[in-house]
């Protein structure tokens, strides 16, 4: 059947309406009727849709080429890193598709009028450490107080005294003035001059300190470094072992050398040599410094999920009990099972729980920590959501689950979506074992941009005590229209489902020992929760 | 084979998959979008397709048509997405999707040629029209934003977009017939 001119005109109109998202139900039905009966119409339709698809591609490319648009965050697409760390086929596709979805992500930039940019953290605003202790500190430049967060790229210049810096990965560095330390990331620092001692727990293995003459990678230990003005560096291993790589004047690196406990080495541009007065110097490093520390009280609510029956999970604070509900005909029969510590909540893909939690929507510092067990055969719809709660008053929420989108990170790794920023971890949780998760949300109080916005958040995720973070900006279009202030926020913490339950998707797996704290917990506090299953007191932390 | 050469072979296979996906994802997306004419739904299905493509890549025979193979997978993902999600992800009835899928598969070479020709046709547009249509299709944008930026009313923008698409469609068809003739 050949189409008449009026039919072609009608088909063209319908295709335009479809492409622009304004087709009516009647229009859709009519289009279906035409497509069903005419091969010529189908060919016309395929060309029309292909045109739109091609235009998306060209528009995306041109937008990406525009000079005034910042590139997507560098850590969104890092093929080399991906290949080496993952090596799976799924990961390979992730790289490829990140390229494609790069378009979508940049739309956030295109729509900067909506103020969304301020919600995502820029590289230079990212906090990577905090000043956890100070003793007689004299700073060159602005004073830094205990408890203050330190950002990526910040240079710490200490005239005299001792400063304790806790990196987000958990490594603790004591800096003795005069000293200059550059904070490169949560895992790396550069000692320009002066002396430091680094205490690195097992979860932070891989923490590195470098300078022009040597690169030190920690293998789980305590070590010291002294960089003098002439460019020579002495490295001492107090406990455990480290890997050192000497560098010459042009930056070439020698073969790595492992130094073990009580060993020391001097690195200068002339080459490596023994350290003089090793014993005496070592002893000096072993001395404890009595730091003035920040005092930051933290309140915790804890659900142990140790009940063996019933539809209530009791909480450590009254009024916070979680009520279980399910749409499954079998009811709550399978809701209670064995956990990491005694009982756990068993979520079967239809069961969820709701705990009333006044004030949970507020953009204040918060940490959630819990044990989770995700079945190895969990399928994509099972990813949504381990925990969720409302965020702010614009209808947004925080959702913790595992990543089901291989274009945005490792499939099955922990994923937190907070408003429109997302963070995906690096190890898959889909292995049928218990993993400890801690999600730390800290509002970004500094900077004009943050003040103007509703309050940007920084997300940190710890899996089994180890910091895992790959942040990226997320496609913002789905939230269209969500910027209007919602009339009321349901102050609830959802366990096993998202705040918006319209998809009906639920998490499948087990959850145990859930803690919610009203503070951004430090890596030490998180480790303590994981190991002891109870909150740390300041005394406990000081004794560590 | 020892484990080292196994690993090397795996790495090569990874590279091959990456190369194929980089080269062809646009075409696979185009195919999905034709069956599910909503950008976001099509992107979601592309993601799910990519997972399956990765998982099944061992079954892909070298030297055969990768796009056709991947589109087969995409087709089943489109079907599955209808069963799996409560909300309507798929606009058309299954019989229409099937008929369109067949036509789209047959038209792959033509659609590719049209995509190439479109680049030149875009250059031939008036600057104002080009800006409107590209703004409309920018990631994160839409007709409303395009209308706003070009100082048009929404209704005028819809009309202008219809006119521009027709211009581009005709230009591409014309270009291909000229190329076909020479």
Structural features, described:
- The complex is a heterodimer of chains A (544) and B (182).
- By secondary structure, chain A is an alpha+beta fold.
- Helix content of chain A is 21%, strand content 36%.
- The longest helix of chain A has 27 residues, at 39-65.
- Chain A is globular and about 95 Å long.
- Chain A starts with a helix and ends with a helix.
- With 182 residues, chain B is mainly α.
- Chain B is 81% helix and 0% strand.
- Chain B has helices at residues 3-35, 39-56, 66-84, 94-106, 108-124, 127-137, 143-150, 154-181.
- In chain B, helix 1 (3-35) packs antiparallel against helix 2 (39-56), helix 6 packs antiparallel against helix 7 and helix 7 (143-150) packs across helix 8.
- The chains are: A alpha+beta (544), B mainly alpha (182).
- Chains A and B meet through helix 1, helix 2, helix 3 and helix 5 of A and helix 1, helix 2, helix 4, helix 5 and helix 6 of B.
Could you outline the blueprint of secondary structure elements for this entry?
The complex is a heterodimer of chains A (544) and B (182).
Chain A: H1 5-19, H2 25-37, H3 39-65, H4 79-85, H5 89-110, E1 127-139, E2 149-151, E3 155-167, E4 172-183, E5 188-200, E6 208-211, E7 214-227, E8 233-246, E9 257-260, E10 264-268, E11 271-273, H6 278-286, E12 292-293, E13 300-303, E14 312-313, E15 322-325, E16 336-338, E17 343-348, E18 352-356, E19 366-373, E20 387-391, E21 396-402, E22 413-418, E23 421-428, E24 434-443, H7 448-452, E25 457-463, E26 466-467, E27 470-473, E28 492-495, E29 508-517, H8 523-532, H9 538-543
Parallel strand pairs in A: 5-6
Antiparallel strand pairs in A: 1-2, 1-3, 1-12, 3-4, 4-5, 5-7, 6-7, 7-8, 8-9, 8-10, 10-11, 13-29, 14-15, 15-18, 16-17, 17-29, 18-28, 19-24, 19-29, 20-21, 20-28, 21-22, 22-23, 23-27, 24-25, 25-26
Chain B: H1 3-35, H2 39-56, H3 66-84, H4 94-106, H5 108-124, H6 127-137, H7 143-150, H8 154-181
Helix pairs in contact in B: 1-2, 1-3, 2-3, 5-8, 6-7, 6-8, 7-8
């Amino acid at each position: 059947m050949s189409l008449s001119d009026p039919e072609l005109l009608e088909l063209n109109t319908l295709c335009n309406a479809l492409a622009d998202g304004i087709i009516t139900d009647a229009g859709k039905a009519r289009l279906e009727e035409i497509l069903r009966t005419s091969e010529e119409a189908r060919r016309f339709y395929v060309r029309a849709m292909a045109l739109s698809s091609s235009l998306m591609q060209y528009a995306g490319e041109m937008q990406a080429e525009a000079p005034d648009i910042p590139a997507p965050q560098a850590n969104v697409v890092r093929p080399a890193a991906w290949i080496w760390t993952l090596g799976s086929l799924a990961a390979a596709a992730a790289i490829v598709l990140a390229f494609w979805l790069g378009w979508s992500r940049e739309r956030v930039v295109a729509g900067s009028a909506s103020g969304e940019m301020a919600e995502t953290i820029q590289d230079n605003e990212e906090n990577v450490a905090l000043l956890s202790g100070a003793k007689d500190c004299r700073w060159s430049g602005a004073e830094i107080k205990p408890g203050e967060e330190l950002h990526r790229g910040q240079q710490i210049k200490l005239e005299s005294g001792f400063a304790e810096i806790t990196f987000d990965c958990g490594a603790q560095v004591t800096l003795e003035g005069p000293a200059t330390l550059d904070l490169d990331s949560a895992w790396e620092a550069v000692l320009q001059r002066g002396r430091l001692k680094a205490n690195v727990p097992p979860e932070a293995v891989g923490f590195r300190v470098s300078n022009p003459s040597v690169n030190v990678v920690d293998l789980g230990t305590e070590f010291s470094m002294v960089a003098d003005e002439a460019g020579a560096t002495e490295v001492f291993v107090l406990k455990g072992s480290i890997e050192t790589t000497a560098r010459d004047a042009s930056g070439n690196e020698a073969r790595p050398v492992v130094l073990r406990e009580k060993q020391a080495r001097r690195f200068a541009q002339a080459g490596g040599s023994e350290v003089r007065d090793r014993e005496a110097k070592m002893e000096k490093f072993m001395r404890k410094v009595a730091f003035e520390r920040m005092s930051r009280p933290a309140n915790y609510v804890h659900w142990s999920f140790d009940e063996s029956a019933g539809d209530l999970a009791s909480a450590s604070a009254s009024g916070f009990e979680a009520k279980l509900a399910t749409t499954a005909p079998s009811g709550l029969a399978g809701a209670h099972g064995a956990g990491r510590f005694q009982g756990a909540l068993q979520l079967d893909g239809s069961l969820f729980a709701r705990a009333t939690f006044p004030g949970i929507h507020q953009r204040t510092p918060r940490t959630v920590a819990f044990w989770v067990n995700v079945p190895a055969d969990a399928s994509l719809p099972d990813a949504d959501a381990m925990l969720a709660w409302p965020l702010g008053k614009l209808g947004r929420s925080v959702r913790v689950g595992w990543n089901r989108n291989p274009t945005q990170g490792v499939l099955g790794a922990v994923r937190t979506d907070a408003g429109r920023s997302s963070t995906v971890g690096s190890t898959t949780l889909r292995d049928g074992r218990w993993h400890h998760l801690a999600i730390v949300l800290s509002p970004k109080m500094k900077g004009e941009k943050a003040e103007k916005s509703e309050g940007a958040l920084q997300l940190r995720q710890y899996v089994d005590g180890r910091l895992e973070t790959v942040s990226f900006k997320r496609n913002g279009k789905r939230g269209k229209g969500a910027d209007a202030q919602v009339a009321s926020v349901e102050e609830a913490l959802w366990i096993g489902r998202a705040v918006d339950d319209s998809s009906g998707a639920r998490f499948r797996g087990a959850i145990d020992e859930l803690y919610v704290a009203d503070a951004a917990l430090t890596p030490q506090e998180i480790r303590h929760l994981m190991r002891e299953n109870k909150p740390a007191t300041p005394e406990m932390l000081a004794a560590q | 084979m020892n484990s080292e050469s196994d690993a090397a072979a795996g790495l090569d296979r990874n590279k091959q998959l990456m190369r194929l996906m980089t080269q062809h994802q646009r075409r696979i997306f185009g195919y999905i979008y034709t069956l599910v004419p909503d950008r976001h739904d099509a992107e979601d299905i592309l993601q799910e397709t990519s997972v399956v493509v990765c998982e099944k890549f061992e079954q892909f025979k070298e030297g055969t048509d990768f796009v056709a193979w991947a589109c087969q997978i995409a087709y089943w993902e489109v079907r599955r997405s209808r069963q799996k999600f409560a909300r309507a992800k798929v606009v058309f009835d299954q019989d229409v999707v099937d008929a369109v899928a067949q036509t789209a598969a047959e038209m792959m070479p033509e659609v590719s040629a049209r995509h190439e020709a479109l680049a030149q046709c875009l250059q031939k547009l008036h600057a104002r029209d080009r800006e409107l249509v590209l703004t409309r299709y920018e990631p994160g944008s839409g007709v409303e934003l395009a209308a706003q930026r070009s100082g048009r009313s929404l209704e005028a923008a819809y009309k202008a977009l219809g006119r521009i698409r027709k211009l581009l469609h005709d230009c591409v068809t014309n270009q291909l017939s000229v190329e076909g003739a020479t």
